[in-house]
Amino acid sequence: MSIGHLEGIRACVFDAYGTVFDYASAAARCRDVLGDKLEPLNALWREKQLEYTWLRALQERHADFWKVTGDALDFALETLGINDDRLRSRLMNFYLTLDTFAEVPEMLRQLKTIGLKTAILSNGSPAMLEAAVKNAGIGPLLDEILSVEAVGVYKPHRAVYRLAVDRLNVEPHMIAFQSSNAWDAYAASAFGMRVVWCNRYARCPERLPGKPDREITSLVELPALVSADPPSMIR
After folding, report:
1. What is the overall mean pLDDT for the chain?
2. Best exposed site among 57, 152, 171, 207 by fewest CB in 10 Å?
3. Does the structural domain 11-22+100-233 have CATH classification 3.40.50.1000?
4. Contacts of 37 (CB under 8 A, 6+ apart)
5. In 10 A of CB 82, how many CB atoms?
6. Sequence spans of domains, the chain
7. Which residue among 15, 22, 184, 213 is the active-site one?
8. pLDDT, tens only, 6-63
9. Given this structure, which CATH class describes domain 25-97?
10. Is 213 labeled as catalytic in the residue annotation?
11. pLDDT at 1 over 70
């Protein structure tokens, strides 16, 4: 994968869960109850959450991400033999106040300083995204918080990526899209965006249409990639 600056970028758009917000932080706050089932729950909950978005999109039976997240959690809890309504409520409530990854606030501040538009583009429902952004205190650093609810279908449908183009009034090739989900990164590339795959989890490249322009392991690397100034000028 090539290295160096991405020229002509006017906006940076971010996936939310796994990219800006650490989806694993909800279950981590229930470590006292989950014990050795913490990691299996995290993995299965996330797997089913994404699977249900894809299946609902294919069936044209849309439900918002709060419903999907709850359904995925119920599947994971039952699979692991956990029957605890109070725990379920705690986990769902914690999903509204997920931790951001440590570098996110300063990274967004740098992007705003160099004059770029910033946005979140997510499967999350508006209420979920607004709660997470408010809790993290990053609202003033975002120009838009975009939910798939505006188009009624989940990623990787092209209508989702088109939403960012329309709302930001920036052409696809002038948008840098960041996601830790490789399938999302590849889909945004196939749509026509410039893409920085934040490969936080050391995954292999996908065999899908599109190809990320850059690959990084943390968003701390992003401002130097999209700034018109030399990297040494970015602090």
Report:
1. 95
2. 207
3. yes
4. 80, 82
5. 15
6. 11-22+100-233, 25-97
7. 15
8. 999 999 999 999 999 999 999 999 999 999 999 999 999 999 999 999 999 999 999 9
9. mainly alpha
10. no
11. no
